[in-house]
Automatic annotation (TrEMBL):
Its main location: membrane. PROSITE patterns: ABC_TM1. One of its GO terms (biological process) is transmembrane transport. It is found in: Cell membrane. It comes from the Bacteria. InterPro entries: BP-dependent_transpt_permease (IPR050366), MetI-like (IPR000515), MetI-like_sf (IPR035906), OppC_N (IPR025966). This is ABC transporter permease. It comes from Szabonella alba. The chain crosses the membrane at residues 31-52, 93-119, 131-149, 161-183, 214-235, 272-290. Keywords: Cell membrane, Membrane, Transmembrane, Transmembrane helix, Transport. One of its GO terms (cellular component) is plasma membrane. Residues 91-290 form the ABC transmembrane type-1 domain. Pfam families: BPD_transp_1, OppC_N.
Amino acid sequence: MTDLPDSLAAARPPRNQWWDVWDQFRSHKGALIGSVILALTLFSVLAGPWLWGVDPTFINIRMRDQPPSLAHPLGTDQLGRDMLARLFAGGQITIAVGMTAMALSILLGTLIGVLAGYFRRIDGPLMRLTDLFLALPLLPLLLLMVMLFREPLVGSFGPEGGIFALIVVAIGVTSWMQTARIVRGDVLALKEREFVLASRSIGTPARRMILRHILPNVMSPIMVSATLGVANAVITESALSFLGLGFPPDFPTWGRLLNDGLAYINLSPERVIWPAIALSALVLSINYIGDGLRDALDPRIRGR
């Protein structure tokens, strides 16, 4: 086959850079496997309650502590509630908490990082604030926030809404620091690039400069931080629920299921095994996807 003439080759539209990102991402086997596991997990959690059709809060004392069977594939708990239905319902809550807390964390981290990197006057105070949050012990701070604000929020928004808001805000305001540091470093480098200097020389306002030139060029680390932030939020929520400081006992999350099943681990180990497998699969898949995105979005690695 002969080569195309130079005129036709020159007329061919340039290859979209997102195809290069996809090519690099799919070359990462761990990221592809993680994507498949995450897709299956999300499908199971979202479609499972509709397909299974069992109420996760239905109590049947006569069927308590039943082993796995055709009627109850994962058995029942000490109150006769179906464990498969509770696993599906708990997955929805756990993933919702992880996504919402990640969004809050990324919003705070990006805002503080961009402001600190672009405006030199507030760089010092914002970075000292970041250092202060980094120096605080995370778990005691979370426990303190839960103890102080649990009752007022439950009284205002109800048990489910109040605890959900409390857990999301507590995780979000204690996990933005790494994103802020990464974004700040990228903004400091972008400020010295030619296109930013040229835009500034013609009098472009700071708000427009940030929205049109700075933010689009720091989206890669923000996307990676967002991916890994979901895993961190899921682990933190599960730890709080496992300690009994998260959602109420009748509001299942995977951490709460672990806490409830711990007392029955000798009699019914599957009550601990299945939530633990679900949590591990979710966190590992998200971490592998984050690794793949980091490699795919880094132009220094892309194409190797």
